[in-house]
Write a structure and sequence with these properties.
Elements: H1 3-28, H2 33-48, H3 64-88, H4 91-94, H5 101-112, H6 119-137, H7 146-153, H8 155-179, H9 183-205, H10 211-214, H11 218-239, H12 244-251, H13 254-265, H14 275-292
Length: 293
């Protein structure tokens, strides 16, 4: 469980996730979310197919199949809830709820995989969650407590809180799947499940959209799929080396990277105001690093 192995992988997860989210932001402005999700997951699976000749299939453990069914189903259902959450409420009120996933992991990880971080690690996780929250909601026109208040009056934030919890379960199931196979076998199996599930869900629940609508965006969707695959591969390799809460907490530093990319590339405002959140996240990152040193 050496820091030198898992930490660069977890940081790569955060970077790839931030880049994917940057492209997602542009895609959903021009296409409906169902099309973006369906095409992105299909592209992510296809991008992984060239790895097949290089995969040595290990002995599949007894817990592989229930972990695949559980994690795959959770991820598909989370997509359905995610679309509904964005439909019912503002993005600025819903997405901050996802930063609570590492906190939920402090409950689900000991139960599912028997992992509990040290006190220093727990403090680091809390700092990263708090910092991510500050990055997303410390804005003059929204207010720090707005997402909490929205829990009582809006459906979207409540759905996002449910998603944050179920993703804390699926992250642990991912580790179970890896322990009963290998990171690459689990990655391909899970992505095949999710690609099929999201395609069926988009076909059944999503609006009809012709190929003429999304074909001009094909290159961007392929890049998003590639980044999604790269992030997942690095995440699963990191999960093999350290505790689930640490990997997911460092993954949440993607919010910090997204702020930098947004201010730099999209010329978004509020960079100075978000420095407090960045500083708190960095402090949490250092605490987790010290906990694993």
């Amino acid at each position: 469980m050496e820091m030198i192995g898992w930490l660069p992988l977890a940081l790569a997860v955060a970077l790839f996730t931030a880049l994917k989210d940057l492209l997602n932001k542009r895609s959903v402005a021009q296409l409906n979310p169902w099309t973006v999700a369906r095409m992105q997951h299909l592209a992510a699976f296809v991008v992984l197919l060239p790895l097949l000749p290089f995969i040595s299939v290990p002995e599949i453990g007894p817990n592989f199949w229930w972990a695949l069914l559980g994690s795959g189903t959770i991820n598909v259902v989370a997509l359905l809830l995610y679309v509904q959450a964005l439909h019912h409420s503002d993005l600025s009120l819903t997405t901050p709820m996802l930063t609570t996933t590492p906190v939920f992991l402090l409950i689900t990880s000991p139960i599912i995989v028997g992992e509990f971080p040290s006190l220093t690690g727990v403090m680091g996780i809390v700092f990263i969650v708090l910092g991510a929250w500050l990055l997303n909601v410390q804005q003059r026109h929204i207010g720090f407590w707005a997402p909490f208040k929205a829990l009582y009056r809006e459906r979207g934030p409540r759905l996002m809180l449910i998603i944050a919890f179920v993703w804390s379960v699926s992250s642990n199931l991912d580790k179970v799947g890896i322990q009963n196979s290998s990171p690459l076998v689990w990655l391909l199996s899970l992505f095949a499940f999710i690609a099929l599930g999201t395609t069926l869900a988009a076909h059944h629940f999503g609006p009809r959209e012709s190929g003429a609508d999304w074909r001009p965006h094909t290159a961007t969707l392929w890049i998003q799929g590639g980044l999604f695959s790269a992030a997942a591969l690095c995440q699963f390799l990191a999960l093999e080396l350290t505790m689930v809460p640490y990997v997911i907490a460092v993954k949440r530093t993607s919010a910090l990277m997204a702020v930098v990319l947004g201010v730099w590339l999209l010329k978004e405002q509020g960079g100075r105001e978000r420095m407090l959140g960045a500083a708190v996240m960095f402090a949490g990152f250092l605490l987790i690093t010290l906990a694993q040193a």
